[in-house]
Structure formats: C-alpha cells, structure tokens
Amino acid sequence: MHVGAARAVGLFIGVSAVLLLAGWLCAAGKGFQFAVTVVVAAGILVHLFGDSLALRAMRARPVGEIEKPDLYRTVRETATAARQPMPRLYLSPIRSPNAFATGTGRRAALCCTTGLLETLDERELRTVIAHELAHIKAADTLAGSVTVTLTGLITALSAVAFLVPLGDSEEMDVPELLGGLLVALLAPVAFLVVRAGAGRRSEFRADEQAARTTGDPEALASALLKLEAGMREHPLPRQRTLLPAAHLMTTNPFPTGAWRLFAAHPPIAERVRRLRALRRGWDLG
What we know:
This protein is mainly alpha-helical. Helices cover about 65% and strands about 5% of the residues. It is built from 10 helices and 4 strands; from the N terminus they run ααβαβββααααααα. It has helices at about 1-50, 55, 70-80, 115-120, 120-135, 140-160, 175-200, 200-215, 215-235, 270-285, and strands spanning about 60, 90, 100, 110-115. It has a 4-stranded mixed β-sheet. A hairpin with a 6-residue loop joins strand 3 (about 100) and strand 4 (about 110-115). The longest helix has about 50 residues, at about 1-50. The two termini are about 30 Å apart.
C-alpha cells in the first residue's frame, strides 16, 4: 500500500516538474504561471475524479447482484478469498475482452467488459478478477488514477498547444510559435514518463497474487491467451479518450498499430511463462 502511494506521489511530482519546465521554456514567467495553473487543476482532478475517469471513458455503468448474479457471486467469493472488501462492480458495453480496477478502499471499483464475460469461462474469469483485486490491495490503482488523469490532461494540452497563446496577442511571432511547438513535443515525453510510472513489475506481482488467491495459475495463463486473441479479433477503438485508461487493463488493449508503443504491460508470453513456472514449482514442492 505504501509503495503504491509513494509511486503515485512521485509520478505526480515528476510530470508536474516537466510541465512547469515546459511552461518556463515556452514563455518564461507567463508560461510558468500557466503551467502552475495546469498542475493545480490536475491535482484537483486527481482528487475528485481520478478513480472515475477510466470508467467514464469506457462508458461503464454500475451493476448489482440482481442484474449479474453469477458475476457478482464470483467477485464476492474472490474478494473474500483475498481477504479484502468487495469493490463496486461496473460493466462496460465494449466487445474487446478486458477488465480493470480503479480507486482504493471504499472507492475501489472493478469493471469488466461484455467481451470479457463472453470470452472466459468461470474458472478463468475468477483469476482475472483476482488479478484486479491484487492491484487494488497493493494500491497500484492509486498510481493508475493519477496516470489516467495526467495522461488525459497531457494529450489534451498537446492537441491545443498551437491554439493557446501564452503571450500578448500582438507580440505573437515565430519564437512564440516555436514555444507552442516545444509544448507539443514535450507532451509526449511527459506521457512516456507517465506510462513508465505504471510499472510492469506490478503486473507480474498481481499475476502471482491472483494465482495464489485462486490456486489456479494455469487458468490465469489460459485467460491471458484468450484475452490476447480476443483483442486482436475485437480491438479496443483507437480513441483519444481511451488511451489514458489503457495501462489499467488486465492486458494491453492495443496489441497492434503505433499505439502498442505506449503499452505498460509485459508481453503475454512472458506472463504465461511465469505463471506456468509457478505451477511447476508448486507441483515439485
């Protein structure tokens, strides 16, 4: 929990420093003031909406036991086995099979896509749920909430970099245009910093914890392979609003195309290899 919180704080400070530097380089004092405003706004957004932005991007809605009794039961039983509170349950109408978790404590939420429920059997679904619960328990979702907010803000800023003059309108000239270009170039750099903050080791750790919670690493390995195949058949729409939430998902939702470069997930083959090695270790033990 402490590691996840520290990573979230470090992530916010690091990206804020990049934005402040970009503002100063673009327009000195005025640019720095603008960057400070952006950083303060980002802090407010993280606090108020950090755990819900991904849910909104995926058009997720809350579901209860009456509507999805089997899913609700599986989540409740898995949370009990993991010795943690049951999160709020959400369902996204997207066909691409995946799941993700946001928030911590009472604000924790678990979202499954309809494609996930159609792709996995109950045994595999249980392990994916356990994987996401492991992220909640380790507070990886706290860093994830910061990442979603900052990446959304950065991509928005990069889109309007040339449209927002930071100096007096009558003084707008080539140097200031170059300043806007600098913001547009630094924004992807900051985005890469945010992506790096997601951490691939947390995925390995969550895989192992899910395997221990369910006692079934082979089912999680099978689920990961099915998700990889399912996402190639039904890829997540390549929309700007969905990009910031990609790193939260159980597997990389953009396995092909240029956006795969921003993946925060280890290769599926490596995750499957580790899970099967864990199973063999248990058998030998």
